[in-house]
Please model this.
Amino acid sequence: MPELTKFSYIGVLVFILFGTVWLEIVLQARVLRKIKRLILTLIPVVTLYVIWDYYAIINDHWFFDPTKTTGVILIGFLPIEELLFFIVVPIAALLSFEAVRSIKQEKAGDEK
Model:
């Protein structure tokens, strides 16, 4: 069982994704269908959080437990799980927001 603990972070991300991706299909959230809009939304978020993580890691504000991550490191310091977190969580938030908007039949700022 100890080998499975290195997938703990990935497991949480999969749970988050499966917990919200159905909103795209069932409630017509239209997040994943508008890929250009999604990418333009994610670029500043991912960039900001990668910079924030870099600062926090080099200043020993936090670290990543190697027993809970796969060991795949990007850019010399960032576990792949952390980068995926910066992508999956905003997508889950957008799916949730758009699903509520779909139910309430409200328009967003770019659709008014």
